[in-house]
Q: What sequence folds into this?
């Protein structure tokens, strides 16, 4: 994995994680499953990127981690959005939409 | 911020928990994946493999997670710190040597810094103390230095100054406190009512003096100093209590906060009207009663130069208006303001500047030594380091670990150093008190602790960075030679040798400093003082000025006291003198006089001398030799011709080859001519280092003075003599204090106490330096011998004489020492120049000291080389070669 590629993925992955957590707290595996599901298996989340991303987001204070029980009653670490995370998500979403709309326009023009 | 702190906290103290969490989190993920695979219908074995494969390298993910959580550096630090402690525990010799060396170096610096901080850096303990000045007047052309001010000048300066917002007066007196078990002699500051306001001092209890309390006829009041108040029970209800002082009853109106013992170590303060001399109607107009010290506070915006111009103009104006009371023009008469900070600290500056330089050098030495120890240790670990580098530890990481290690060692050393400094603080305060009244302010406060912390970290950086940067990380070379020849390359070797040269140079500087001081002390101790201090006991006797108001009354007291004391068994000779010899608290109190038949062109150009009143037995009691003529006799009474005895210096200075005996002089303030009847030997009257000046002794009975000292030559011990003197004095007058019993030898050893303590301090530091350096030399030579074992083995096998091998090693060591001494010569020269103010009759380039210290250093270094060098000759060639 070259750093350039991971950087690109990293930013995207961060938004995806934040967005996933909007509907409620979730553990790492659940986050990965949900992203895959929602994207119809287009987006495969690499665990080697997922967990560092979670720790980075936690260090930035955008998500909070707590130990809880999973659906099959096992101890799991659940991540939840913080208020700062919600703000961040709104910003990222907006800039993402602006960006993709711009890219779309450029692609249609040619 | 809170989450970051929590994360840092966890990384620091719950690292294992963090790892466990990560582990568990990832295991959970794999298990969920596994279940999903099983649900998808994969066989168990394949489901597991698949789950693990998709997850990837868990350890790697964990590592990245730790990196991402932003506390990696902290974890590294904790890891390094643990490794350091483990390493130090495994190698306690290194740890102890390094920590002790650093503790001594840092401790010495912290101790001296605590003095420098309290005395020179802190604001004066007066409100806006930087705006305070003391006025002084000088006339260097006619030998007048720092003359006092007279009572009529005070209102004149206050009215005429444009740069000072207020002017206050001060002088110190002894009053007698009566009503206790024994009369007590109290040092009293006598001040104008605005004194404490001007100084910016607010009493701790009660109030300061009110305007008008210094006017004639005001109710007698007094203010206690903090020390006196504390010595007498710290009574918070003392306000309003009365003290019977001499013939007046004073009411306590205030207690001062702790203050520097400046201008004097006063027990209490009174308004100026309470001093019978200052307060008398005659003194109010007497321009020759120069008894007062004057303080001023600068107006906002006034510069020191403006103040000096201002007060000098006032002085010149007064000199023109009252020409009889001031020096003639051409005498260089000037008035100026000395900043109070200089007054309080000037005398301490040279000594503590030198001490600061010395402890700085000691720390440098300690750093060099620990760097060398670290270097040697690191070379032993070069395989470990190279391996770690090969396994992927970055250069930064390795340097960081080395710095963590040195930083922690330095902090341990610093902690021990602070304890050391705190332990020595009391001694240091006592030492500093000899030079400055601010010594009482010396403490180890937060600023000093911060300094200690900063110094420790800086020290760790210095001795850690050197070896860290010179480390050998080339795995191939290190592993190739199997660790036996891992010399760290040329660079490490040059570095180690360079450090030794620096250590020798620094030690040499310190040795020179101590050597010069010791030589100066030796000269001071061997000054011919001109009297015999052995077996003389002295006590202070200041007659009660409100009781013995005239000469007749004082004489009567003396005439009863002296025979009563002489009658005591074992008192072979008894005398009273105005001041004791070697009196360091004052200088000569010069008066002008005229020699009969030699009229001077102007009154300012007349000769001057110091005048001292002594009783007839004085010269015999302390064995000042009578050179010619006669000493005073009991028959030299007021109704007989006035007589004087002069010292040898004066006889030679003023009469040269003529015979002084029989000549007459006329002294300012004395109506009749005084005839010189004898010449005595010179005495060091005002300090050991002060050359004898012109001195006139007058007969006590013809000029009976109030203050003086009793001197008794006796074989009895101090306590019993003191008891008998006190008993005799109180027998004559129970209200008359007599105190401060000392032997004249105490007085003499007190006179050299400051230089002696300075010498001891410098010698301790120099000895320490020598010890550290010789250990360093021995260590480096031992290391170099160890490195070259095979070479020596080959040389010996090929028939080299053991002596030649020894000489080879010694040459290497002594070349470093010689280079160090050469470098040290330059530094020592600079240090000695800095010290010249502290030296007595010793030149800063004193060749014997430089020679002696070179020999001492070279000798110790030779021994330090010899011990490890001998190992080179005992190398067994077969063993050395087999290990090759």
A:
């Amino acid at each position: 994995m070259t750093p350039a590629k991971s950087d690109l993925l990293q930013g995207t992955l961060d938004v995806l994680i934040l967005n996933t957590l909007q509907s409620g707290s979730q553990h790492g595996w659940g986050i990965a499953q949900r992203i895959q599901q929602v994207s119809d298996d287009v987006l495969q989340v690499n665990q080697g990127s997922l967990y560092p991303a979670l720790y980075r987001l936690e260090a930035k204070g955008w998500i909070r981690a707590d130990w809880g029980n999973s659906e099959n009653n096992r101890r799991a670490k659940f991540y939840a959005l913080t208020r700062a995370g919600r703000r961040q998500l709104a910003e990222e979403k907006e800039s993402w939409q602006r960006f993709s709309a711009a890219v779309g326009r450029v692609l249609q023009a040619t | 911020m809170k989450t970051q702190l929590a994360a840092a906290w966890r990384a620091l103290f719950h690292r294992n928990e963090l790892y466990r969490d990560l582990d568990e989190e990832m295991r959970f993920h794999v298990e969920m994946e596994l279940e999903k695979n099983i649900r998808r219908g994969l066989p168990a074995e394949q489901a597991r493999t698949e789950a693990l494969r998709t997850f990837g390298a868990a350890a790697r993910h964990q590592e990245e997670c730790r990196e991402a959580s932003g506390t990696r550096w902290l974890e590294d630090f904790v890891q390094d710190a643990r490794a350091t402690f483990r390493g130090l525990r495994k190698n306690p010799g290194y740890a102890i040597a390094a920590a002790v060396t650093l503790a001594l170096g840092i401790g010495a610096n912290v101790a001296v810094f605590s003095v420098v901080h309290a005395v020179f850096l802190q604001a004066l303990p007066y409100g806006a103390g930087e705006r305070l000045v003391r006025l002084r007047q000088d006339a260097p052309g006619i030998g007048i230095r720092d003359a006092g001010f007279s009572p009529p000048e005070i209102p004149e300066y206050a009215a005429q100054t444009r740069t000072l917002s207020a002017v206050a007066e001060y002088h110190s007196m002894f009053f007698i406190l009566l009503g206790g078990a024994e009369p007590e002699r109290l040092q009293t500051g006598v001040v104008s009512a605005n004194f404490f306001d001007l100084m910016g001092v607010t009493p701790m209890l009660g109030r300061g003096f009110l305007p008008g309390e210094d006017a004639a006829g005001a109710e007698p009041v007094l203010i206690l100093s903090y020390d006196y108040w504390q010595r007498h029970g710290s009574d918070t209800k003392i306000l309003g209590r009365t003290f019977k002082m001499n013939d007046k009853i004073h009411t306590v109106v205030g207690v001062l906060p702790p203050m520097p013992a400046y201008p004097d170590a006063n027990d209490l303060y009174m308004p100026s009207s309470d001093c019978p001399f200052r307060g008398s109607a005659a003194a109010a107009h007497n321009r020759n009663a120069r008894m007062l010290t004057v303080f001023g506070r600068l107006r906002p915006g006034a510069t020191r130069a403006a103040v000096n111009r201002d007060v000098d103009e006032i002085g010149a104006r007064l000199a023109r208006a009252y020409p009889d009371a001031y020096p003639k023009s051409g005498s260089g008469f000037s008035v100026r303001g000395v900043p109070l900070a200089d007054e309080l600290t000037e005398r301490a500056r040279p000594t503590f500047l030198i001490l600061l330089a010395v402890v700085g050098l000691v720390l440098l030495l300690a750093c060099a030594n620990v760097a060398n120890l670290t270097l040697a240790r690191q070379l032993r670990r070069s395989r470990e380091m190279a391996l770690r580098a090969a396994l992927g530890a970055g250069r930064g990481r390795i340097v960081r670990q080395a710095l963590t290690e040195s930083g922690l060692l330095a902090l341990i050393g610093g902690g021990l150093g602070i304890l050391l400094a705190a332990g020595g603080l009391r001694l240091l305060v006592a030492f500093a008190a000899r030079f400055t009244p601010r010594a009482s302010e010396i403490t180890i406060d937060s600023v000093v602790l911060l300094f200690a912390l900063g110094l420790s970290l800086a020290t760790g950086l210095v001795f850690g960075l050197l070896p860290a940067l010179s480390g050998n990380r080339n795995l191939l070379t290190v592993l190739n030679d199997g660790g036996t020849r891992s010399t760290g390359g040329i660079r490490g070797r040059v570095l180690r040798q360079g450090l030794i040269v620096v250590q020798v140079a620094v030690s040499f500087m310190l040795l020179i400093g101590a050597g010069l001081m010791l030589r100066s002390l030796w000269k001071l101790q061997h000054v011919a003082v001109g009297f015999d201090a052995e077996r003389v006991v002295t006590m202070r006797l200041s007659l009660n000025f409100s009781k013995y108001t005239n000469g007749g009354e004082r004489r009567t007291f003396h005439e009863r006291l002296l025979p009563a004391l002489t009658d005591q068994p074992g008192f072979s000779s008894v005398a009273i003198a105005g001041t004791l010899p070697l009196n360091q608290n004052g200088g000569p109190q010069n008066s002008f006089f005229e020699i009969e038949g030699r009229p001077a062109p102007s009154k300012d150009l007349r000769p001057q001398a110091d005048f001292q009143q002594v009783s007839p037995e004085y010269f015999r009691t302390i064995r000042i030799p009578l050179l010619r003529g006669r000493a005073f006799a009991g028959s030299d009474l007021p109704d007989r011709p006035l007589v004087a005895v002069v010292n040898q210096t004066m006889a030679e200075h003023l009469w040269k080859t003529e015979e002084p005996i029989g000549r007459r002089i006329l002294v300012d303030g004395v109506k009749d001519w005084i005839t010189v009847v004898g010449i005595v030997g010179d005495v060091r009257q005002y300090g050991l280092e002060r050359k004898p000046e012109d001195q006139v002794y007058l007969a006590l009975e013809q000029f009976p003075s109030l203050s003086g000292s009793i001197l008794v030559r006796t074989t009895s011990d101090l306590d019993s003599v003191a008891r008998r003197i006190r008993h005799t004095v109180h027998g004559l007058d129970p209200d008359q204090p007599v105190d401060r019993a000392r032997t004249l030898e105490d007085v003499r050893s007190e006179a050299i106490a400051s230089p002696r303590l300075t010498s001891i301090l410098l010698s301790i530091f120099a000895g320490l330096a020598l010890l550290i350096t010789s250990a360093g030399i021995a260590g480096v030579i031992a290391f170099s011998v160890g490195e070259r074992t095979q070479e020596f083995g080959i040389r010996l096998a090929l028939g080299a004489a053991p002596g030649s091998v020894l000489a080879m090693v010694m040459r290497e060591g002594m070349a470093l020492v010689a280079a160090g001494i050469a470098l040290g010569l330059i530094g020592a020269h600079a240090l000695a120049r800095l010290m010249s103010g502290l030296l007595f009759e010793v030149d800063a380039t004193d060749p014997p000291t430089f020679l002696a210290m070179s020999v001492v250093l070279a000798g110790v270094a030779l021994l330090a080389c010899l011990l490890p060098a001998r190992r080179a000759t005992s190398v067994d060639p077969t063993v050395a070669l087999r290990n090759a």
